[in-house]
Amino acid sequence: MKNIALTIKNQFRLLLLSLLVLIPSCTKDYLKKAPDEDLDIKKVFSERKYAESFLTSAYNNIPVMLGAADWDQRNPFTGASDEMEITFLGAYSHLLNSGAWSANDYYPDVWGFMYEGIRKTNIFLENVALVPMPDEDRKKWIGEATFLRAFFHFMLARIYGPIPIGDHSYALNEDYLKIRRQPVDKVIEFIASECDKAAGMLDWSVSTDKLGRVTKPAALALKAQALLYMASPLWNGNPDYAGVKDNVGTALFPAYDKERWKQAAIAAKACIDGAEANGYKLYRSASNDPVRNYQEVFIERNNAEVLFARNAGEHSHFERCSNPISYGGYSIFCPTQELIDDYEMANGQRPITGYNGDGTPVINAASGYMETGYVADKHPKDYYPAGVRNMYVGREPRFYASINFNGAIWKNRNIQFWFEGLDGRKRAGSDYCISGYLMKKMVNPTSDIFQNRFSLNTWIYYRLGEEYLNYAEALNEADGPVADVYKYVNAIRDRAGLPGLPTGLSQTDMRERIHHERRIELAFETHRYFDTHRWKTAAGIDSKEIHGMNIGAGNALNDDNFYKRTVIERRVFVAPKHYLWPIQQAEINKNPNLVQNPGW
Amino acid sequence: MPGSLKKRGTGFLFFLFIFINTVSAQKMVTGKVTGAADGKPLAEVNVVVKGTPIGTTTNPDGTYAIKAEKNATLVFTYVGYEIQQIPVSDISQLNVAMKQQSSTLGDVVVVGFGKQKKISVTGAISSVPVNNLQRIATPSLSNALAGSMPGIITRQSSGEPGYDGAAVFIRGFGTWANRSPLILVDGVERDINNLNTQEIESFSILKDASATAVYGVRGANGVILITTKRGRVGRPQVVFRTENASLTAMRLPDYINGYEYAGLINEALNNDNLPLRYTPEELQKFKDHSDPYLYPDVNWTDAVLKKNTFQSINNLSVTGGNEIIKYYTNVGYTILNGIYKQDPDNAYKTNAQMKRYNFRSNVDINVSKTISLELGVGGIIQKGNYPGTPAPDIFNALKITSPINYPKINPDGSIAGASTSYLQNNPWGLVTRAGYTRQDRNTLQGTFGGKWDLSSLVTNGLSVRGLFSYDHWYAASTDRKKPYAIKQYLGKDNNGNDRYSDPPIREEQPMGFNVINAANRAIYTEVAVNYNRSFGDHNVTGMILGNRREYIDLTADNTIKNLPYRRQGLAGRITYNYKNRYLAEVNAGYNGSENFPEGKQYGFFPSVSAGWVISNENFWHVDAISNLKIRGSYGQVGNDQIGGRRFLFLTTINRSGQSYLFGDNQRFYQGFDEAQIGNDDVSWEVATKSNIGLDMELFKGTVTLQVDAFKENRTGILIQRGVIPRVTGYYPWTLPYANLGKARNSGIDALLEVKHTTHSGFYYNFRGTFTYARSICTQNDDPIPKYAYQSFVGQPIDQPLGLVALGFFKDQSDIDKSPKQNFMEAVKPGDIKYQDTNGDNVIDDYDRVPIGYPRTPQMVYGAGASFGYKGFELSFFFTGVAQTSLFVDGASMYAFQMGLGTYNIMREYYDNRWTPQTPDAKYPRVSPMQNPNNNRTNTMFLQDAGYLRLKSAEVAYNIHLKQGRRAGLESIRVFINGYNLMTWDKIKVIDPESDYGTGGYPLQRSVNFGTQLTF
Questions:
Q1: In chain B, % of residues over pLDDT 90
Q2: Average of per-residue pLDDT values in chain A
Q3: Would you say B104 and B90 are in contact if contact means Cβ atoms under 8 Å apart?
């Protein structure tokens, strides 16, 4: 009996022991668990469809400039120029305008967003050879990615100046301290040569279903713009930057070279000639009415003038920002009185030639401009209705295409910006029209906010009209006011229903005329901010009070109290500090070899 | 034939009865058990025949009856009393006087994967008497824990039904990754907050490496062990407990009224030399409410929130058993109402409400002398009803919407609003007209365990044990949201008719329908071999355990989240005890997780500990100190909870990356981009912990003291790489994670208890706890900041940075001679003047320094007492925290920061703002717009968030009914208790436990009436 018990005991011990051996062997695979067949970079570039999606993601890094009120749209430029005041307090342009920005403010993170795009294009360019596809198609993809990479670099250079060139994708184990800012002329040289490369691979235009993809004229336009910026006073031998060096002694800005203007002119002309030979031209409406000619450039998507545009979908936020409150808008894209004053009269005369010490305008009597009183009759073509202030009467067609003013007809009724009016301050909350004007250019007159009906938007980065002015400016600087300068400026004016420039202008006078023409023709297209910076005129322009109408008064359209020029903001600009943006301090903390811009 | 069916049923029951009661019947012993000190009968004393499972419990009059053999010995046990063992021999009447235990050393303590005698414990373990927790009438158990045990730190930031659980930390935190402790209910990872307090048998926390090493990669943040009640031998006992509470919001923000608001707008404009907005006549209209539609004055908080609401918790339990089967069953019903007012016109309910049905059944079966089984089933059905607008949005709207924006409703009964988008959130509309959301959350918890004593089969003291559990959680949320009509009232037209904005701001749309489902499942298996044997004075125990857990998110929305979360490992323990004087213990965990790369999945976490019971030495002759033990431990534990991120070693592509529109009609093209950059080297955090403790008992257990000091070094804290510059172009969210962080955590915790029952039957008890834990970041992956004082290295984890406010600018000359404040164009008198930390004569972000304490308190204490006499009981408990800060800031304190007319303004700001007449104010002047100089993180809005709170108080009366009523009701307990009764703090305007800002869903104060009936 005892023996049997012992055997049971022993057998049981054996069983236990074998269990202990068994358990680990069956548990080996228990933790082997990872996702099946998920994509990695290698698989992405082994399939044409996947590779295309990778390039699609890079396109996303083209900023949507329509959302000027919000930092994530990366356009603080419109609100920070003397074109516009954005009432919304969260707009980043407020920090720029008050001078209250610093290297510790991250928004809008143009730096990070653009380098993300550069990384995507680099990965694409490094791997595209692996994609099984016809070389003819591959060439176009390479052209698109090459352009995008150059474009992202230019988006950075135009605010930071000298920047690190990202010509390859960085690995995690790379020595980031080796990343340094390159001299601005090297950066522009890189952009220009990449544009040449891209232009060699791209078509002049794409089929309707591909609109939005990069074309050859886009590459030529980017090159022309980059060279124009390089030739301009901010970067071309700017004495303020003569001593700006990297921490190993590399000068980041070059000495003056007049030849740069020449190169800019040649590049612009090449773009114009090539584009026009391939069907691009200045847009004109069916009726050739000058207001419509101009207004529709920005409404009729992908018209013959557009060289490169970003598709933005139905950008309802943009429509809301620019519509008055009684139309369901936020009413916050508010042009300044200074811009209003700069629109010419229909006869080509300037209405206001300057300002007195107390802020009152110096009126050019010969222009026919009247600051007071109200018009008895409406404009024959309904540019304005009867009863509006004389200030808004007899102005050039682009004024009526670009500005919504008090009493203007908008979507078949009159806007009421006066205090008690439907769109007035009294009825608004924190969002309101601060200047008594709203931007009309680019805003779609058929959208209906209450019904949530919007149209597709595009943001035009390059158009032929701008190329004309680029060419005229560069040519005037290189060769003086030669015939081509007149030809291309007058083409722009003619489309807008204005008489040509007076003949016999000096180079200086012509420069002033071109600068002025750019201010009007390119208004709200973000060019103004960069123009005043590259011309080094921002210090004088952006350091002053800006004005609007007196929105805190008025109980009718013809209430004189409303039409009092009123300070809406006092802007701050410290030169040379504010000509370039600061590199984020966090970025410098990570890599002290990225030297900070002067003044920051 | 229904009669025969009934008969058959009775017959079956009878058979069962016989089966249970007639296993061995030799002799009937009866008697009465009394307390030795007072001679009063003791109910519920366990009477067991030694060496057999036969047992019973005494009746309320102390009597018992049990069958036993002649040579048997009866064992009498009762909590708090010494064990009595009396041989039966020929006696049939056996009366026993039980002596009160002089010490708690005989108690058993729940430890990781087992139980230990309290005397032999060498790790840092604390527990709380469960009735302390039960005095707090809250559906979320975590809210009852504050200050209850040394080492526990909690903060409750919201009182929303169903979302009111507190954050719980053990000894602060050693990491800035996942800081939550491991919570085990009956040995299985489960949610603490849907447990019913009445179901709990024991609650303890494991704090040091010795106690937690067996949990390996899951133990580093401490472990909470909860066991639920089990059956015991005795006739069935039924307990019904019902408690009904009236709840009141503790602190709601006090906002200024319409007249004050409009006046403040004028003051703001005047401060910036701008024309005033309101004429005196208009101001008067806000004041006298003569035109309530155009000059409204709405107290939105009053309009939307109720003063009182209701909560009811009801439980019915049955406990009983015999030597073969023991059972415990509880059903509970809890209802907690929210504080939203309802619109009687609605056919449906919109107020928040949480209803919960709890069911738990624990059954223990002795299959044979050596094999026992346990079966536990828990079911929790929680139903929620909420307004169509989530609580954060409602409370946000209450903050945003000023008293003068618009009336609550328009003259025609429609919801008032204005065209500006933020003004379309009329709080009354959000709460009553936006439809509703119904939630249904179901939890099923099943546990099956068994134990086999192998003493006779293999060797003495050896046993094996197994546990299997299956938990399933399912939740469905039905949204019936309704976009209701919003109109703006514009006054009367010339004919005296009401005018409204045309078209309306929003037109009414039909109620929508949407269902969201979520489900998960967890399976846990554990097998253990235990060894427990004494060789003379040497006591040895050993344990080796293997376990495995799989958790699946069944409704995950991507492949990574859908993969099961798996963990498996081994745990071992060896203890040695010589004469209860010298104690030593080795614990280890070896486990791994699927979340780490192959070859790096498993980790080994050992710990050693030792104890010396000085009072058991022969030389110890201090009678007053009946127990004195010092103990220490050292070891490593891990933390593999890395914030839900998975497979960090993989490099992956995001198939729903950034996209683009191509073509004239702008068709959507999906983009692919990088999702995660992998790191082959990723692993868990390791905590190296040491602990020194002292346990002491004075005057035969009247006073108990437990003090522990601890230190912890956490290494390998998983953080996202912080030094990779943006210029590399990686998306910030794709950057790899690496085990680069280090932190140090140290502190002390202590418990003091005094317990005494006088000869006259007066009982008193005092309990005090104290916890101090300070966690310092010692290494992170941040780039080196420009100024060393802005580095988080060397600072407490979660340390806020901010500017140091020096006061206000007095006048222009003060501004001129002070450093330039670079936050806005120009400051004015009444704006905040800051310290120029770096001395560069410019005030900017570089002047920010560490200010205040982190939000989670570094010091927590609790103290309470109970008194009992002749059925009366009185108890109360205070908790408090210190060394924590709260920024009472945000748009309601930063007046008009989002524009004139936006955001309510706290009276705290209004009454204490700077004006030329009150230059010594507490807060800066009012500006008519964003004031980036004043409205930023700075010491002026930083408040000491320490508080002392009367957390609970209870008065109860117990009636033991006389013998004659024995067949039915046995005893009655009636009680009134309160929760969150009083708070003493410095903030006063919002609850000191709130998150940064000006508060959300308020915490509740409850006054609770209850009755407990025992049958």
A1: 43
A2: 92
A3: no
Chain A: nearest CA to B258, how far in angstroms?
16
* Whole-angstrom distance, CA of residue B56 vs CA of residue B78: 12
Residues 6+ apart with CB under 8 A from B650: A34, A35, A38, B676, B678
Q: What is the predicted pLDDT for the residue at B116? A: 85
pLDDT of residue B46: 80
Q: Answer for the pair A495, A479: CB distance below 8 angstroms, yes or no.
A: no
- Residue B1014 above 70 pLDDT? yes
Backbone phi and psi for residue A592, each to the nearest 5 degrees, phi listed first:
-65, -10
Q: How far apart are the first and last CA of chain A?
A: 96
C-alpha triplet A240, A243, A245: angle, nearest 5° = 125
User: B6-20, B169-183, B667-681, B748-762: lowest mean pLDDT where?
Assistant: B6-20
- Three-state SS for B897? coil
- Per-residue pLDDT band for B42 (boundaries 50, 70, 90) equals confident
Beta-carbon count within 10 A of B246 CB:
16
> So what's the pLDDT on residue B10?
47
The encoded tokens of residue B687 equal: 């905590």
Q: Cβ separation of A172 and B724 shorter than 8 Å? A: yes
Please give the structure tokens belonging to residue B905.
């303004």
Cα maximum dimension of chain A:
133
**Half-sphere exposure of residue B610: CA atoms within 13 angstroms, side-chain side:** 4
Higher pLDDT, A89 or A128: A128
The H-or-E segment that residue A3 falls in is helix A2-27
pLDDT of residue A151: 98
C-alpha–C-alpha distance, residues B880 and A169, integer Å: 55
Contact (CB, 8 A) for B226 and B390:
no
Most confidently predicted of A11-25, A266-280, B424-438: A266-280
Predicted local confidence at residue A320, as pLDDT = 93
> Is the separation of the CB atoms in A338 and A547 below 8 Å?
yes
Contact residues for A481 (Cβ-Cβ < 8 A; gap 6+): A505, A506, A507, A509, A510
Residue B4 CB coordination number (10 Å): 9
State the DSSP string of A238-282. -GGGTT-B-TTS-BSSPPP-THHHHHHHHHHHHHHHHHHHTT---
Asked whether B805 and B811 are in contact (CB, 8 A), the reply is no
Cα–Cα distance, A52 to B660 (Å, whole number): 11
Return the percent helix, strand and coil in chain B, to nearest 5.
Answer: 15, 45, 40
* CB-based contact A211 B662, cutoff 8 Å: yes
Residue B582 scores a pLDDT above 60: yes
Give CA–CA dist B297/B271, Å, rounded: 24
> Bridge partners of B19?
none
Geometric angle at alpha carbon A268, from A267 and A273, rounded to 5°: 100
Find where tokens 């504010």 sit.
A578
* Packed helices B280-288 and B258-271: angle between N→C axes, nearest 10 degrees: 150
A500: pLDDT strictly greater than 90: yes
Q: Do B728 and A170 touch (CB under 8 A)?
A: yes
Contact A429 B784 (CB under 8 A): no
Report d(CA B194, CA B182) in Å as an integer: 16
Q: Which two tokens stand for residue B569?
A: 């490992």
ipTM over 0.95: no
Does the pLDDT value for residue A73 go beyond 80? no
pLDDT grade for B67, boundaries at 50, 70 and 90: confident
Q: What is the predicted pLDDT for the residue at A578?
A: 94
Distance from CA of A587 to the nearest CA of B (A): 6
pLDDT tens per residue, range B172-203: 888 887 888 999 999 899 888 778 888 888 88
- Closest CA–CA distance from residue A495 to any residue of chain B (Å): 25
Which of A12, A72, A120, A175 is the best substitution to test chain B (most B C-beta atoms within 10 A)? A120
Q: How far is it, in rounded angstroms, from Cα B164 to Cα B160?
A: 5
